[in-house]
Amino acid sequence: SKYSIDDLRKNDAYLRLGDGYFVSSNYSAAIEAYNDALKIDKIESDYAAFQKALSNGYLGKSREKISQLEDFISTYKKSVFRDDALYELGNSYVKRNDIDKAIQKYNQLNAEYKSCPLVSKSLLRQGLVYYNNGENQEALSKFKLVANKYPGTPEAVQAVSSARLVYIDLGQVSEYA
Q: Cys-Cys link to 52, which of 23, 34, 40, 126 (CB 3.0-4.6 A)?
């Protein structure tokens, strides 16, 4: 009741237009449409803000993507996309080689959204980050956690496979078995 029908329709039209451009890989046009949706200030559009950040990432504008995702996380505390934003932000920090911030965002996701399907992916990513940085014990800890907590998932299979590499690097193949 607090929105006019025109505002709702306009917002919906801009979101649909943005999504059309997004799936067509026309990210600049998608950003414009999402911006138009965000201008309808009576309507909180967390979806538009999230999609805009992703679009910037696909355009190679990682600085803008990271900034917008950080804003998203602090602005939309109850959003259903907040867990996705944390995961994307962690991944973006990994790509930028800002490992401490990546681990922090993954930890935040793991702590705030314990039952989220992205947690197993986040834990696996943490393990891979640790492994790539030569922090083998931390990597093993994450890989074991994924394998034990999420058995049968693709992430668990990858964790076991990655743990094997760690054990080989450590010269402890028998412990892997």
A: 34
Please tell me the predicted confidence (pLDDT) of residue 108. Answer: 98
- Which residue bears the tokens 């800890």? 141
Q: What percent of the chain has pLDDT over 90?
A: 86
Phi and psi at residue 82, in whole multiples of 5°?
-65, -40
Amino acid at 139: A
Residues in the chain: 177
Q: Which two tokens stand for residue 154?
A: 């693709």
User: Distance of alpha carbon 39 from its chain centroid, rounded?
Assistant: 25
Separation CA 64–CA 121 (nearest Å):
24
Nearest to 24 by CA among 55, 61, 56, 68: 55
Quote the pTM value: 0.90
Between the alpha carbon of residue 2 and those of residues 42, 48, 118, the distances in Å are: 8, 20, 34
CB atoms under 10 Å from CB of 25, counted, come to 11
Name residues whose C-beta falls within 8 Å of residue 99's C-beta, 6 or more positions apart in sequence.
Answer: 93, 129, 133
Which tokens in the block code for residue 13? 């039209």
The model's pLDDT over 130-152, given as tens digits with 9 standing for 90+, comes to 999 999 999 999 999 999 999 99
The residues of the chain scoring below 50 in pLDDT are 1
- HSE-CB at 175 with a 13 A cutoff on CA atoms is 11
Judge whether 61 and 42 are in contact, CB under 8 Å. no
C-alpha 108/C-alpha 125 separation (Å) is: 14
